[in-house]
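Key result, reporting period 2: structure in, sequence out.
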């Protein structure tokens, strides 16, 4: 959801000549509680799902979902953690979270999955011990290591087309599979054919231990650990090139000429780099000072600052001190662009460059270690109320908040139909509630700073349910197929829904507004869209047949 607030440019960054850098000690925020509801691909609750919070490899707290798929996870560190959700027959979901939740409940959907196992063999059929095995498909990737007998296993993988690659030294093998038909996968490592040699000249022996060769390909799985491998003692490396990629050298304190090279499977000449020391000065990390400037009379307390590069990769985290100041040590050079964000709970960053994404308020900046970055804040508002239709409340209704630019955020009402939504930027919105029984309500909401708006009136919208099944050319159900639905009523504008078929090929869309809808299979060629007519309170059925 985007929002821009006018502000004088001079307020974005204030130059401060500081003779002393204040030490900023990390402060531990009080533990928080996370609540959510777990659903399957049809929108039904998933009971007895295992929910845990992990910091690094350590599980700090755990719980399980109830019969309605609802869980309450307490004693969660507010400074950041990984939420892990696992259930029988489902693909484990992992999500990085931090800070106080701005919604009372969040919804998490689990895709159907099956265990996947196999063996890595050499060209003569003998097992290969210790091979790295990478499994990846849309929205999912994992890496495991083969045992001494070459065997490997993945607890659960999506029921869709996937690629399995195995690496051992300079050998690489690959298989394309579709679960559940391919539950056991043999990956054969032939003698290497597509090897490219990398040589780095001018690099002292002392720098070899910290130097890496980074390979970047379209699928980010050309090599294990996202394409990073060390140099050998002779300043060289052997790359297995499966597809066209970019190769560059990461050597702290050094630059290379050229900065990067393109490698493909057709050429055999070595990739040659020449390393040169960087000019004197900061070579590895840059210290960036900043301060959060709250509205007058509104102390904010310790606040988590997250820094990302322009690829949205996290490069630093800091906690502000009592005066709102923070210090970030970033692996970025002076002049590079970055973005800073704070969790949307009570405040948001005010700037012409502000945007709201992933539950945070962000602003783009340039790395300048000599300046102090001053980020002006303004209070956010919130919404609360009860989702009520006729003479009853809608339990666990899905809430969609849409701003005037069409950006949408999502929340969830509880088992009594009550909701509370904090950290909403001031502005006018359309609030839509979709009940688990398919009822749809809508209302207009106006959010003001420092105010929690109470929603009391709703307008019912004629709506029904779309249920369908995806089948292959032989009439068999096809799981893991991406289905896109769109609404054709021009008066209300196009509405899109994205679904994934379950293990029986089924998909369901509750709360589809009455009128004509069309469905198509994403990524399937020569497939004409299929139409259906949704009536108020009715169920429209669709069948999507995949071509041969």
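The corresponding designed sequence is given below.
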């Amino acid at each position: 959801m985007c929002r821009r607030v006018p502000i004088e440019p001079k307020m974005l960054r204030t130059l401060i000549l500081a003779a002393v850098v204040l030490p900023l000690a990390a402060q531990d925020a009080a533990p928080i509680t996370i609540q959510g509801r777990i659903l399957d691909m049809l929108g039904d609750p998933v009971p007895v799902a295992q929910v845990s919070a992990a910091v690094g490899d350590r599980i700090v707290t755990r719980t399980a979902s109830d019969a309605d798929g609802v869980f309450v996870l307490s004693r969660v560190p507010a400074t950041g953690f990984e939420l892990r959700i696992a259930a029988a027959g489902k693909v484990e979901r992992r999500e990085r979270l931090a800070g106080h939740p701005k919604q009372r409940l969040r919804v998490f959907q689990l895709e159907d999955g099956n265990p996947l196992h196999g063996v890595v063999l050499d060209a003569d059929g003998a097992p290969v011990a210790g091979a790295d095995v990478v499994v990846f498909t849309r929205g999912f990737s994992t890496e495991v290591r083969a045992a001494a007998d070459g065997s490997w296993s993945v607890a659960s993988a999506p029921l869709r087309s996937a690629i399995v690659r195995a690496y051992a030294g300079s050998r690489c093998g690959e298989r394309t599979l579709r679960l559940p038909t391919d539950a056991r996968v043999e990956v054969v490592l032939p003698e290497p054919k597509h090897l490219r040699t990398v040589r780095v000249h001018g690099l002292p022996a002392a720098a070899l231990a910290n130097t890496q060769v980074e390979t970047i390909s379209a699928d980010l799985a050309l090599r294990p650990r996202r394409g990073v491998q060390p140099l050998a003692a002779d300043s060289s490396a052997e790359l297995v090139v499966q597809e066209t990629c970019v190769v560059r050298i990461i050597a702290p304190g050094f630059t290379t000429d050229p900065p990067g090279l393109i490698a493909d499977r057709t050429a055999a000449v070595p990739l040659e780099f020449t390393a040169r020391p960087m000019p004197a000065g900061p070579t590895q990390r840059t210290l960036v000072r900043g301060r959060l400037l709250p509205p007058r009379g509104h102390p904010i307390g310790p606040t988590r600052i997250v820094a990302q590069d322009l690829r949205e990769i996290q490069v630093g985290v800091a906690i502000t001190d009592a005066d709102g100041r923070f210090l970030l040590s970033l692996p970025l050079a002076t002049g590079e662009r970055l973005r800073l964000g704070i969790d949307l709970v009570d405040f948001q960053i005010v700037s012409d460059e502000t945007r709201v994404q992933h539950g945070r308020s962000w602003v783009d900046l340039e790395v300048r270690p000599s300046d102090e970055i001053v980020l002006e804040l303004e209070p956010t508002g919130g919404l609360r109320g009860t989702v009520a239709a006729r003479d009853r409340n809608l339990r666990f209704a899905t809430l969609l908040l849409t701003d005037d630019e069409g950006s949408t955020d999502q929340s969830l009402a509880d088992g009594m139909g009550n909701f509370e939504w904090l950290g909403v930027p001031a502005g006018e919105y359309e609030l839509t509630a979709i009940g688990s029984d398919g009822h749809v309500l809508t209302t207009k909401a106006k959010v003001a700073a420092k105010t929690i708006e109470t929603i009391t009136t709703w307008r019912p919208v004629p709506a029904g349910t779309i249920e369908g099944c995806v089948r292959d050319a032989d009439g068999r159900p096809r799981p893991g197929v991406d289905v896109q639905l769109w609404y054709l009523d021009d008066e209300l504008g196009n509405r899109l829904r994205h679904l994934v078929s379950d293990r029986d090929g089924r998909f369901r869309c509750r709360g589809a507004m009455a009128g004509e809808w069309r469905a198509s299979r994403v990524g399937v060629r020569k497939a004409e869209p299929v139409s259906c007519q949704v009536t108020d309170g009715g169920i429209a059925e669709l069948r999507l047949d995949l071509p041969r």
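The chain has one helix and 48 strands. The radius of gyration is 26 Å. This case is discussed further under Risks and Mitigation.
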